[in-house]
Amino acid sequence: MSLLNPTTVNTLRFLAVEAVQAANSGHPGLPMGAAPMATALWSNMKHNPANPNWPDRDRFVMSAGHGSALLYSLLHVFGYDVSLADLKNFRQHNAKTAGHPEYGHIPGIEITTGPLGQGIANGVGFAWAENYLAAKFNKADIKIVDHYTYVLCGDGCLQEGVAAEAVSLAGTLGLGKLIVLYDSNKITIEGSTDLAFTENVQARFVASGWDVLEVANGDTDLDGILSAIEKAKSTDKPTLIEIKTTIGYGSPKAGTAGVHGSPLGADGIAATKEKLGWAHGEFTVPAEVTAASTEWQKVAAENETNWLATITAYQSKYPADYAQWHAWQNDSLPAGLADITKFFAEELADDKPLATRVSSERILQKLAATVPQLIGGSADLAPSTNSWMKARGEGYSKTNPTGSNLHFGIREHAMTAIANAMYAHGGLRPYVAGFFVFSDYMKPAMRLSALMELPVVHIMTHDSIGVGEDGPTHQPVEQLAALRSIPGFLTLRPCDTAETAAAWVMALTQEKPSALVLCRQPLPQLAGTGEGLYKGAYILKEATNPATGQPDVLLIASGSEVELILAAQAKLLDGAIHARVISMPSMELFDAQPNAYKEEILPKAVRARLAVEAASPFGWHKYVGLDGAVVGISTFGASAPAGKVFEEKGFTVDNVVAQAKGLLS
Amino acid sequence: MSLLNPTTVNTLRFLAVEAVQAANSGHPGLPMGAAPMATALWSNMKHNPANPNWPDRDRFVMSAGHGSALLYSLLHVFGYDVSLADLKNFRQHNAKTAGHPEYGHIPGIEITTGPLGQGIANGVGFAWAENYLAAKFNKADIKIVDHYTYVLCGDGCLQEGVAAEAVSLAGTLGLGKLIVLYDSNKITIEGSTDLAFTENVQARFVASGWDVLEVANGDTDLDGILSAIEKAKSTDKPTLIEIKTTIGYGSPKAGTAGVHGSPLGADGIAATKEKLGWAHGEFTVPAEVTAASTEWQKVAAENETNWLATITAYQSKYPADYAQWHAWQNDSLPAGLADITKFFAEELADDKPLATRVSSERILQKLAATVPQLIGGSADLAPSTNSWMKARGEGYSKTNPTGSNLHFGIREHAMTAIANAMYAHGGLRPYVAGFFVFSDYMKPAMRLSALMELPVVHIMTHDSIGVGEDGPTHQPVEQLAALRSIPGFLTLRPCDTAETAAAWVMALTQEKPSALVLCRQPLPQLAGTGEGLYKGAYILKEATNPATGQPDVLLIASGSEVELILAAQAKLLDGAIHARVISMPSMELFDAQPNAYKEEILPKAVRARLAVEAASPFGWHKYVGLDGAVVGISTFGASAPAGKVFEEKGFTVDNVVAQAKGLLS
User: pLDDT-based confidence at A1, cuts 50/70/90?
Assistant: First the structure.
């Protein structure tokens, strides 16, 4: 017996429903409707429970993350490390089986999902990574990268804008190995999709360059689903398979919104068992399903064994390529990456003022040569964000699949979710780029990268009112606070080329997503900057009052405002006021230092503290306290030449000096 | 002569190009390509420069906000209050002619644009408002609301997800009076749209329930454009008119990305004048264009005069309806709205614990009866966000256009941008609702509502780790910091029903957008809560050390954590520690109080201060300083029953007590 049969389907349905019931929390509706497509897919997908990290496995994204109970049931039935006890413990404290699928939490989960729509963009990221790596490494005689990406989504995901962005891009890119299974049950939380979603989804996908297939009876037609999947695999476009299902199939509330997100109740489960002819007790995997799974797992393991033979052949015939593939796969970065900063110390001996976005561009060119697995691009702003790897040539396209400069189009949200999946896929180091103010569009996916601890690099330029004439819609104010408050996200706002180089090194050599927050306007090259960034904040220029052995006042700034506090320091010294200049490119890195270091930089005894940053003051009082002050921006910016806006908002040496003096009076 | 001729077109082109040149900043490409469609539209659109606020004017959204120079040129040529001097002052400090069009900055700008894609959602909001108000107020014999909404967008807007969301919804709603002019020039900043945007846009719109028209030669075919617009007006579906144009038409860099966002230069302008046969000097409006505009303005004024006669007839025949329409139009709220809080004081005499989302639902029902122009809904979460106005019945649909409960579908970003335009349209008080964690998806449009000062109400429920089992993807942590840091946005996190009522009143009676941040779990009704919210923070329960006449420690909390610090106060008092309990539902309101009040609540002398909030501590040090502490969440949440997560993260009476004691040791 194979796993492709109604018994497996019902096993999955009842495991999921009973897990939800045990938790008294969760979503039974999708699992019951989507169990058939999941069965058809998983029993024919290329994956090996004995090694969930097999590099050439097919990728599966549960974009409808609220269907987690189905995913955990699949993992259990197919032999992954999820036990019946784990299912019984669904959504409980420290359970493997969290409320929504969490990447890194248990093997077999490719990406964290739940926030709707992003899973479809993740799917595009996985498929894009596969296609690029395949083009890069496969040979005419040996293919080592050759897998599909499957996404299971519902009506909800397809209404989200991020999904539409990703779908349009996937069509342009011709990602033929991306297959989306659309659990089309016409029900969302408020009721029928007729209320708000009457578009012709299939026609929309065709318009976006996809192939479209339909399975009319997704509740029982396993063969129909399987043959649609097989057909989808054979085309050179991405494919949407619309599979018509009944939400909560078999349950008393089948086909209604009521079954979406509430447990069925004991009576509901009993009635459903009656209806579906399921005579088993709670949390049962019938022996024939276990037996079939055991058989299937043998074949799955053999598949990987065959692939291992392939990779061995590849290694022997193409040793250099293999070495590179292997290094990429292990996320190995070149030794001595940190020397990039030294390289720049030499390279920039001319001390020419540069916008940090331009500094970043120069560093990126060096990195492009040093870190071959670097891949990235911008949401149609490469020339402005200085994010193009020049020596890599033409961007990725259908006809140039080895291009590592990526054109995301004007789709910030999808771009970011795609980059997350490119990293999660393995083998690549993705970066994305955009105007900092539009990090607002990217935030939902940045949050997930932080939750997943994926070191995606976000090049965010045009970082303040220094944007000038484009005005308040394009001038970030609160975006630094927004990023700094994301748990596990690293915000870096360097003040010159040396700090920008250090920021790039830091971004690439740790395990959090990061943003390089870079300016549009030229900044001078300062003395003493650079590796101090690694500690988040450091004394750039000291001035000590001989009477106290301490500075009178602490001046703290990041990015383009460091230059300003340096000038203020000099002017204050003329008035015999001793100000310490502290460059603080990263609050997060500073917060992670030992207390002794923090005390060294910000001595508790010195309460006259002034932070200067062309952004919302929100968050700065952690460093300046009740007795300090912040020169920041509590309003929106303004449309005018940058110098004028800085002046209007108080970013002048005179104002900084006056504010510092005010703290001492 | 009418304004519909090539001379007007070229006038607009050169005014725009010369404004950009004078500023040495801005975008000449779109104005030159889109001047013909703008001319055809504006010379036939219903609007009256003598009264930019005519309620029944057609609405125009420059979704491609970087085309601001074209918009300002239109305003000048058509007789609005924008002078040649203003055009010459484009993008300068305090100029009327800001870098991107800013609502409220000068008359004739319907909405702030620039962040791409949102303008299309704004268009949907304008058209939806019109259709609702028309259904509500028009009579078989007299129509007082009867106008169109036009959006001008480019390839950029159409790639953004928010636009796709709005397009899909507009199709479902059948907003026949929405007409989008698509400036299809196939160029974005990185180059040809072939790089990232090869979808069949027309087919996508058809799939979404739109009519589609095309003008093959948008560079010169004014009659073709006009007849397409006329045709679009006659259908009962929204219409996309794809108008093929040449970016930077007539200039040396026509048809290339190089002309998108850089001034042409003196030579470029000279060459363009040569090419287009324009013999005029700088900033010239030829006499015949001025004359034609004067004629056109007479007709425009007559149109409004005719409408005024209609409204007078309406007033006399339907005085009650007129009175209501007039009140709505003037944004008049019922007197005594604040009594809602009193109503609840009586209503909730039973003191039953309630989640603030449920409190909000009860208040909303009262408001639905009191504020008839209230209109709103949720991104498919009405049952969970408790945001349905029950007495208002069935939601808005094609067949029920007087429905004021709105089904936005799972489209948070478009929902928010739509609500912005509904308010900007006039006559309505929109609210939107969603899970707080997904305010991340809404943020880009919330920012614009703050910039525009539109008092849209955002009902944000499931506001913390109290979400419980759904886990970290659904548990907000940093969202409070994100909203609090937006300039001009009002964040309200009430602790019980009385504060929730006060929060609703505050949200409706001031001029900022606001978020009601509400919890999922039941909270007790506390004594002394309510109108103190109006000041942002207040002493809920005092405890004074007789020795000092001051409290020993200040405990500050918002929302669900107020209950916790009250319990901690009692326990501390057992140990003879006097803790003041401060409820701080709104940092923004508190910051706006006079210093004397701030000192009264948070006396400078008392440095032992503990803030307790189930969210990122980011931002709280403004109130607790260097000597205080925050019980907050610096990581992500966890998937488990809510009580367990609160305990794990330190939100227990014992921990609060221990932390408070720690401050005193």
Answer: confident
Q: What angle do CA A179, A180, A183 make, to 5 degrees?
A: 145
Q: Which amino acid is at B291?
A: A
Where does B348-385 have alpha helices with state H?
A: 356-370, 382-385
Residue whose structure tokens are 């419980």: B468
For residue range A610-656, what is the model confidence (pLDDT) as tens digits? 999 999 999 999 999 999 999 999 999 999 999 999 999 999 999 99
Q: What is the DSSP string of B265-301?
A: HHHHHHHHHHHHT----TT---HHHHHHHHHHHHHHH
Residues 6+ apart with CB under 8 A from A603: A550
A412 assigned to active site: yes
Contacts 24+ apart (CB under 8 A), A361-367: A361/A386, A361/A387, A361/A388, A362/A497, A363/A497, A363/A500, A363/A501, A363/A504, A364/A389, A364/A459, A364/A504, A365/A389, A365/A390, A365/A391, A366/A340, A367/A340, A367/A504, A367/A508
3-state secondary structure of B609: strand
- Where do the DSSP E strands lie in B379-425? 405-407
Give the residue among B495, B437, B491 at the shortest CA–CA distance from B468. Answer: B437
Q: Residues A440-485: pLDDT tens digits?
A: 999 999 999 999 999 999 999 999 999 999 999 999 999 999 999 9
Task: Say if strands B538-541 and B579-583 run parallel, antiparallel, or are unpaired.
Answer: antiparallel
| Shortest CA distance from A171: residue in chain B | B199
At A176, the amino acid letter reads G
What are the distances in angstroms from CA A542 to CA A463, A573, A580, A583? 27, 11, 5, 11
Probe site for chain A from B94, B199, B598 (most A CB atoms < 10 A): B199
Q: CB neighbours (10 Å) of residue A575?
A: 9
DSSP A447-500: HHHHHHT---EEEEES-SGGGGGG-TTTS-SSHHHHHHTSTT-EEE--SSHHHH
Enter the ipTM. Answer: 0.98
pLDDT digits (tens, 9 = 90+) for A51-95: 999 999 999 999 999 999 999 999 999 999 999 999 999 999 999
Nearest CB to B159 within list A23, A168, A644: A168
pTM (2 decimals)? 0.98
Taking a C-beta distance cutoff of 8 angstroms, is the pair A473, B115 a contact? Answer: yes
Supply φ then ψ for residue A368, to 5 degrees: -60, -35
Give the pLDDT confidence of A120-133 residue by residue, as tens digits.
999 999 999 999 99
Q: Are A568 and A598 in contact (CB under 8 A)?
A: no
Q: How much is the pLDDT for A664?
A: 96
Q: What is the rounded CA–CA span in Å between residue A419 and residue A457?
A: 9
CA B97, CA A419: separation in Å to the nearest integer? 38
- CA distances to B341, B344, B401 from B531, rounded to whole Å, are 8, 12, 37
Looking at the partner chain, which of B161, B481, B627 has a beta carbon nearest the beta carbon of A162? B161
With CA atoms as reference, the chain A residue closest to B97 would be A639
Query: If you average pLDDT over every residue of chain A, what do you get?
Result: 96
Considering only the beta carbons, identify the residue of A113, A169, A474 that sits closest to B100.
A474
Distance (Å, whole) CA A210 – CA A236 = 9
Is the pLDDT score of B349 beyond 60? no
Q: Using the beta-carbon criterion (under 8 Å), do A381 and B190 form an inter-chain contact?
A: yes
Please, are residues A249 and A32 in contact by the beta-carbon 8 Å criterion?
A: yes
Burial class of residue B664 (count of CB atoms within 10 Å of its CB; 0-12, 13-18, 19+): exposed
Residues 129-158 of chain A whose Cβ lies under 8 A from any Cβ of chain B:
155-157
Q: Do B156 and A604 touch (CB under 8 A)?
A: no
> Hey, of A158, A398, A473, which one would you mutate to test binding to chain B, going by the most B CBs within 10 A of its CB?
A473
Distance CA B150, CA B172 (A): 18
- Judged by CB atoms within 8 Å, which residues 314-353 of B form the interface with A? none
Count, residues in chain A? 665
